[in-house]
Design a protein that fits this description.
Blueprint: H1 3-16, E1 20-21, H2 46-49, E2 59-67, E3 69-70, E4 73-74, E5 88-97, H3 102-116, E6 124-129, H4 141-148, E7 156-159, H5 161-164, E8 165-167, E9 172-183, H6 187-192, E10 206-219, E11 225-238, H7 239-246, H8 259-269, H9 277-298, H10 307-326, H11 338-345, H12 351-354, H13 356-387, E12 392-393, H14 395-405, H15 409-418, E13 422-423, H16 425-443, E14 445-447, E15 451-452, E16 460-461, E17 468-481, E18 485-492, E19 494-495, E20 509-512, E21 518-527, E22 530-535, E23 545-550, H17 552-575, E24 582-587, E25 592-597, H18 604-619, E26 625-631, H19 632-637, E27 651-657, E28 660-663, E29 678-687, E30 690-697, H20 698-718, H21 725-761, E31 763-765, E32 768-774, H22 779-792, E33 796-804, E34 807-814, H23 816-822, H24 826-833, E35 839-843, E36 847-852, H25 858-864
Parallel strand pairs: 1-2, 6-7, 12-13, 16-19, 32-33
Antiparallel strand pairs: 2-5, 3-4, 5-11, 6-9, 8-9, 9-10, 10-11, 14-17, 15-17, 17-18, 17-23, 18-22, 20-21, 20-23, 21-22, 24-25, 25-30, 26-27, 27-28, 29-30, 31-32, 33-34, 34-36, 35-36
The structure holds adenosine-5'-triphosphate and magnesium ion.
Adenosine-5'-triphosphate binds at residues 40, 68, 75, 85-86, 89, 91, 207-211, 236-238, 240-241.
Length: 870
């Protein structure tokens, strides 16, 4: 059965059981502070499990793109070495939100696997939770009894808390789970060892394919459990593993999900998969990682130096490294796999097709730059080896190479091995640990339980229409971090505060009670669909009604920038073409930033056209037309541009100014004329094929012009109030060029004179032409003189000192003959004499220079020079 068919059979099975089938949510999370990537099918539905929102249908099924490369689930180091863990994989899942529970979940899983897919029940095992004394939980006999109806009792295994109790995080919904495992070994193998003994033992052919989670508890901050009022089902089945079983192969990489990519790698690298274990690992790594990277870029997450972008960059670099080391590929090639990938998966995930060009460009650029890093690293590593005494390279040096230059440590140790050197791994690990401790200490955070003041889960956002409201605090909690100390997070029954999202910053403002006590709101963020207000202090009278007031000035400036961002987007598509797509934006009160796909630097004319386009719409006084809570399909059919894939169940808000229509939850001006004026301040590249514009509006534009104007008048003043300052400046510049030429000629003359003087002052010390003297020359002049004199003698020792702008300079020249025969070394001379001028330096054995901050020491240094030739 082809993978396409497997996917659609799963979905239609649950559709028949009254589930709504929804598309995969984007894998890259934009507005969740607790998670960078979706790492399981349930992540996009967290708000439903937490009771912060209600799904339209309490039965849902889908296939979800998941990435397990950071945080709680990190499979990265396994990938390539085993045959059933991926970075990016699809998780097939069915959900019940307070609807059906264990009985149906178990019965349907069984029906699908054995009935619809026809898997032989004799290769299946299931597990149930054995209970836990720590948590005071008994065995999950309910699940056990339901399983007994389908499978013989000796195939139901008991599992401990680690494998059979699922938790969302340190806090929150959790519960026992039942896993389904397959044993796809040959009959002979099975005769040797019973499959039962291999379940959950990391055997590549006895693997878990499906996990059914029964959410029935809530874990509190103090670690205790309380029952959940509504019980939920959350299941996740690895799509690639299911394909392996149904296609009768022994590895995920032998399914049709991967074979087309692997064939392409074979063609490009001229290697055969299945011949050599090391090359095989590399091929698996690359075929896996290209998927992860391509999907993230399609989701709007580009490789970068921080956060989620850095995770993606590391995945791609891991792939490059394996290609470089084991497949001998020293030039970019991974980007060439994107063609097959988008051809094979473009149907299920259309974003791979529509963004193909961009994905290829970005990957190629990343490959190029990392290959350069590797090249440079190799040079540095050779130098380290040259400087190493003995046969062990210091861990500190290797760490520096890794940390500062991004050179991978396993490559370091591989290369050292080839050269017959060992790596001081302990030293390296201890440096690494030190660094980890430093960053952990900086980011450590603890979160208390919520204190509930009023039971109210329907928080209302009124900030589109109001900047002030009377509110009640419904719950609050304390969070403590090294960086910010104690902070309080407050939730209101209703709020005018806009929470950071869609690129727009969160509102600031204050809360005031009837006694006049004020608490400042420093930021507003959304977590699992709840708007959270951040304050340094807890209000005194928590149960009172507060006046909540948004900082209207900041909000207004931010709104100007947000509306201008929409107009800018429209302008770019108009001026540059419809290939322009938004790739990211940041809307602050002081400025806006907009990233978009486009392949070349914008010309001055294009920038001007874009500015004019936006300003024309500001002058056109376009009014805001918004439609709140309309179904996504309606918004799209009315011409709205969908930016990043929206989640299922989202009713959306369409924001329109003239011909600009966007899906947007942000806040906007009521009329474009409020923006006053739009000005681009910079345009540049952020990655291959991605440009960034920074721009300002309103007050910031006024400040900008004031500042420019002030600078202009200051300049004019300096030019003696010239009528035409530009002309005046030009003639000054011309004059300057002439003067510089004259000075150069004079300096040359001076050097010639000095050279003559110096030559006559040379004295013979033990057969060496010696002179140590202070001269009135700059560093370049000294060098000239020294080299000229040097060319006339083969036994010269020259030490010249000079004072330049209050700093001291010592240069030493020693004829090459003396360097060889008398073991003199100019580098050593200036290093030693450098102490007199409180400085240091170096250079070559025949010429070296030191700089220092004490010109008074020059004379002493000159005196001491004689020591070297005596
Ligand atoms: P394993 O023990 O094999 O790592 P898990 O316990 O981490 O699996 P769950 O978190 O329960 O897995 O995820 C549900 C299902 O998703 C698993 O049964 C498996 O089929 C699949 N799965 C989990 N991790 C991966 C991965 N890295 N690559 C491919 N499939 C995976
Ligand atoms: Mg796992």
């Amino acid at each position: 059965m082809k993978s396409q068919e497997i996917r659609s059979k799963f979905l239609s099975f649950f559709e028949d059981k009254k589930h709504s089938i929804v598309p995969s949510a984007p894998m890259v999370l934009k507005d969740d502070p607790t998670l960078m990537f979706v790492n399981s099918g349930m992540a996009p539905f967290k708000e439903f499990f937490l009771g912060n929102a209600e799904p339209k249908n309490n039965r849902i099924a889908d296939t979800q793109k998941c990435l397990r490369v950071s945080g709680k689930h990190n499979d990265l180091e396994e990938v390539g070495y085993d045959t059933y863990h991926h970075t990016l994989f699809e998780m097939l899942g069915n959900w019940s939100f307070g609807d059906y529970f264990k009985e149906e979940a178990i019965a349907w899983a069984w029906e699908l696997l054995t009935g619809v897919f026809g898997i032989d029940k004799d290769i299946l095992y299931v597990t149930v939770f054995e209970g836990s004394d720590d948590d005071g939980l008994p065995m999950d006999t309910e699940a056990f009894d339901f399983w007994k109806k389908h499978i013989s009792e000796d195939r139901i295994l008991k599992g401990n808390k680690k494998d059979n109790f699922w938790e969302m995080g340190d806090q929150g919904p959790c519960g026992p789970c039942s896993e389904i495992h397959v044993d796809i070994r040959s009959a002979e193998e099975k005769a040797k060892i019973d499959g039962k003994d291999l379940v959950n033992m990391d055997h590549p052919q006895v693997v878990e394919i499906w996990n059914l989670v029964f959410m029935q508890y809530n874990r509190k901050a103090n670690g205790s459990l309380e029952p959940l009022p509504n019980k939920h089902i959350d299941t996740g089945m690895g799509f690639e593993r299911l394909c392996m079983v149904l296609q009768g192969v022994q590895s995920n990489y032998d399914t049709d999900v991967f074979t087309p990519i692997i064939r392409e790698i074979e063609t490009i690298t001229n290697k055969d998969y299945g011949k050599d274990e090391k090359a095989d690992i590399a091929i698996r790594v690359i075929s896996d990682h290209v998927r992860a990277v391509a999907f993230s870029i399609a989701d709007g997450q580009l490789p970068s130096n921080t956060g989620a972008g850095y995770v993606i960059r590391r995945i791609l670099r891991r792939a490059v490294r394996y290609g470089f080391t084991f497949l001998d590929k020293k030039e970019p090639f991974i980007y060439r796999l994107v063609d097959v990938l988008s051809e094979k998966m473009g149907k299920a995930f259309p974003e791979l097709k529509s963004q193909k060009q961009l994905i290829q460009n970005v990957i190629k650029e990343e490959e190029n730059s990392f290959l350069r890093t590797l090249e440079q690293g190799l040079i540095l590593l050779n130098r380290i080896v040259d400087e190493t005494k003995g046969d062990t390279v210091s861990g500190e040096k290797a760490f520096e190479l890794y940390d500062t230059y991004g050179f991978p440590i396993d490559l370091t140790s591989l290369i050292l091995g080839e050269k017959g050197y060992a790596l001081d791994e302990e030293g390296f690990n201890s440096e690494l640990q030190k660094q980890k401790d430093r960053s952990r200490a900086a980011s450590e955070m603890s979160t208390d339980d919520w204190t509930i003041l009023v039971e109210d889960s329907d928080q209302e956002f009124i900030g589109y229409d109001a900047l002030e409201a009377n509110v009640k605090i419904t719950r609050y909690r304390k969070v403590t971090s090294k960086k910010e100390g104690d902070m309080y997070q407050l939730v209101f029954n209703l709020t005018p505060f806009y929470a950071e999202g869609g690129g727009q910053v969160g509102d600031k403002g204050y809360l005031e009670d009837t006694h006049g006590d004020v608490v400042y709101i420093l930021d507003t963020k959304k977590e699992n669909n709840v708007i959270i207000h951040f304050a340094k202090n807890l209000p005194k009278h928590l149960n009172e009604t507060f006046k909540a007031v948004v900082d209207s000035k900041q909000r207004y400036r931010t709104e100007c920038n947000h509306t201008a961002t929409h107009l800018l987007h429209q302008a770019l598509r108009e001026v540059l073409g419809t290939h322009v797509e938004q790739k990211g934006s940041a809307v602050h009160s002081k400025y806006l930033r907009f990233d978009f796909s486009h392949f070349s630097k914008m010309t001055v004319e294009e920038l001007r056209d874009v500015e004019n386009f936006v300003n024309a719409r500001i002058d056109g006084k376009l009014t805001l037309e918004e439609k709140r809570n309309i179904p996504m399909e309606q918004a799209i059919s009315e011409g709205a541009m969908a930016l990043f894939g929206e989640k299922y169940g989202d009713t959306v808000r369409a924001v329109r100014f003239g011909q600009s229509i966007e899906l947007c939850g942000g806040t906007h001006v009521k009329n474009t004329s409020e923006i006053w004026h739009f000005k681009i301040v910079s345009e540049g590249a952020v990655a291959a094929g991605i440009r960034r514009i920074e721009a300002i509006t309103n007050d910031a534009v006024k400040d900008f012009y004031h500042e420019n104007n002030r600078a202009y008048f200051e300049m004019k003043d300096l030019l003696n109030n010239a009528k035409e300052p530009v002309k005046a400046l030009q003639s000054l510049q011309e004059e300057n060029v002439g003067l510089r030429k004259q000075i150069e000629a004079l300096l040359k003359d001076k050097a010639k004179n000095i050279k003559g003087d110096l030559k006559s002052e040379l004295t013979d010390v033990n057969g060496i032409q010696f002179l140590a003297k202070k001269v009135d020359l700059d560093a370049a002049g000294i060098k000239d003189v020294a080299f000229e004199l040097g060319s006339q003698f083969d036994n010269l020792f020259l030490l010249l000192g000079a004072e330049q702008n209050g700093k001291a300079l010592l240069s030493c020249y020693i004829s090459k003959e003396l360097v060889t025969n008398k073991e003199l070394n100019a580098g050593q001379v200036v290093r030693e004499l450098g102490k007199y001028i409180q400085g240091g330096g170096g250079g070559q054995p025949f010429f070296a220079t030191a700089g220092g901050k004490n010109p008074n020491g020059i004379e002493e240094a000159l005196k001491a020079a004689k020591e070297f030739v005596n």
